[in-house]
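Sequence design from tokenized structure. All designs in this work follow the same two-part layout: the structure record, then the generated sequence. An example of the structure record is given first.
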């Protein structure tokens, strides 16, 4: 191996090493977020009961990934307990004789490993497009992305789904030269994305078209009719393989595919209902989609730039990404997109990177849950690859400016360590000010219950504590003995008042009055504010 390749390999290891350190540290320090107990509970049910009854609204592959961590540790599981999917996970963590810290770390580690492997895909994709330097730029943006680190360190589905999609697109790009090898692999990666999160479905027809384009390009000098047949066959191979992977994910959980929904499965009419009926997936998958559409019909509350509202705003996700993306990354995303469309040799790659990103973002923007940039985690993943192409813009200053922007992203990411979930960029005040503009998984997802316990023990021992907490953790399990101040007369609420910032964003009525009569004295993890009453 040449000296230059050794240097590149060393830089790849260093970038992924720092990312691994950031994610593992975050996973060790954070208590369960809102969704994690649901997925961890479902993973335990998969292992012990081989049943699809828990969390049917999401396909099983991501939870099977989480289950590999649980299987390695073997936590106690109470099969006799019957409760909601949220309660099953909480019972596993707090009422079955397990150490919740240990269980959560084991559940998160497989997702961390996957996120690191997807970093190699980011590097390889950008290197294929524009060389090793572009690969390093792309990997640096990925490895220092606060959003990717934050969600890649959780036992959730967003990071695996985005990574599998990117892997499929990369393999479709490589299929332009090696169709027989890469098209089936691309289909498998697409199937893995679909079997992880149904929100990736809008990308499926786009990737089928890209498969046909790659197969067409690979034909070379053959008659037009034959090229059309090969293009159709390429799309068919990807589609059939993807469907097979989805079925395989369900069969791994339950080889007999027993499906008796324990929750009401709503009827979906119109075009959505027709699409669901035509999908060649197991009944459990299609019923899960029906449940998801029912969630979309509920009146969710959003919070953007200090405004609390019911419903959704079409521009919520672009605005939230503007707040939560490092400024250097935003500049490089724009430069990379420009390079993909302006440089002739890169133009064939533009549909592979920009079209799936645009279609998925447009689909996500129509959703009714304005709850976080995690619904658009594919954006920093895909555009990191595009950003690497900024080096090809053909200006002598391009490498130097790119290096400065990457360094800016890295410094900002290191400065926010280990509070990646509430990150916002410098233009919006940094992590300490995120709660003024966004809520829920953008800033406060229940992750800092353990840090709150440490803060109370170190700075406020023996004081009376009142707690308004948004999350799935059990405060008493971490040594927090507090009451909800909204359940007693206001005159009895004296001492420390700890309030999750998402609850502050939505504070109205009683809670708003309690906060108005209190004095802020401290904050924990940029997600919980402490008041003195």
């Amino acid at each position: 191996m040449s000296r230059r390749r050794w240097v590149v390999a060393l830089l790849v290891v260093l970038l992924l090493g720092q990312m691994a350190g950031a994610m593992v540290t975050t996973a060790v320090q954070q208590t369960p977020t809102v969704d994690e107990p649901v997925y961890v509970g479902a993973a335990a049910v998969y292992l012990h009961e081989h049943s699809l009854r828990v969390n049917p609204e999401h396909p099983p592959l991501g939870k099977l990934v989480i289950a590999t961590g649980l299987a390695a540790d073997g936590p106690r599981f109470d099969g006799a307990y019957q409760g909601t999917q949220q309660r099953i996970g909480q019972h596993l963590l707090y009422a079955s004789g397990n150490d919740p810290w240990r269980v959560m770390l084991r559940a998160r580690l497989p997702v961390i490993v996957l996120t690191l492997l997807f970093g190699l895909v980011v590097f390889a994709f950008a290197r294929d497009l524009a060389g090793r330097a572009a690969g390093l730029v792309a990997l640096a943006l990925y490895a220092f992305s606060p959003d990717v680190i934050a969600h890649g360190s959780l036992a959730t589905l967003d990071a695996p789904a985005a990574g599998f999609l990117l892997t499929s697109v990369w393999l479709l790009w490589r299929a332009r030269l090696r169709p027989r090898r890469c098209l089936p692999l691309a289909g498998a990666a697409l199937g893995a994305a679909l079997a992880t999160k149904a929100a990736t479905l809008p990308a499926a027809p786009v990737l089928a078209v890209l498969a046909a384009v790659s197969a067409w390009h690979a034909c070379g000098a053959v008659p037009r009719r034959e090229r059309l047949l090969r293009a159709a066959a390429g799309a068919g191979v990807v589609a059939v393989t993807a469907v097979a992977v989805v079925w395989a994910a369900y069969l791994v959980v339950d080889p007999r595919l027993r499906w008796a929904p324990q929750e009401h499965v709503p009827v979906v009419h119109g075009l959505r209902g027709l699409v669901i009926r035509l999908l060649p997936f197991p009944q459990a998958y299609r019923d899960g989609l029906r449940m998801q559409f029912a969630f979309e019909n509920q009146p969710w509350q959003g919070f953007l730039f200090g405004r609390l509202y019911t419903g959704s705003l079409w521009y919520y996700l672009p605005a939230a990404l503007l707040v939560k993306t490092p400024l250097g990354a935003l500049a490089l995303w724009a430069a990379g997109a420009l390079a993909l469309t302006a440089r002739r040799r890169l133009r064939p790659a533009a549909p592979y990177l920009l079209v799936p990103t645009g279609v998925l973002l447009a689909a996500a923007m129509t959703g009714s849950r304005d709850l976080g940039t995690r619904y658009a985690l594919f954006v920093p993943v895909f555009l990191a690859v595009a950003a690497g192409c900024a080096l090809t813009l053909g200006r002598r200053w391009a490498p130097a400016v790119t290096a400065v922007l990457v360094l800016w992203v890295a410094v900002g990411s290191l400065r926010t360590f280990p509070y990646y979930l509430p990150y916002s960029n410098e233009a919006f005040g940094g992590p300490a000010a995120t709660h003024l503009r966004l809520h829920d998984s953008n800033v406060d997802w229940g992750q800092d219950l353990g840090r709150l316990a440490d803060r109370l023990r170190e700075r406020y021992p023996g004081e009376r504590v009142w707690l308004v907490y948004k999350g799935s953790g059990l405060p008493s399990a971490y040594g927090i003995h507090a009451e909800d101040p909204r359940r007693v007369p206001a005159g009895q609420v004296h001492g420390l008042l700890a309030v999750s910032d998402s609850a502050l964003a939505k504070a109205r009525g009683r809670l708003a009055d309690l906060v108005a009569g209190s004095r802020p004295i401290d904050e924990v993890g940029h997600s919980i504010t402490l008041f003195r009453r």
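The chain has a mean pLDDT of 95. We note this feature because it recurs in several other targets discussed in the main text.
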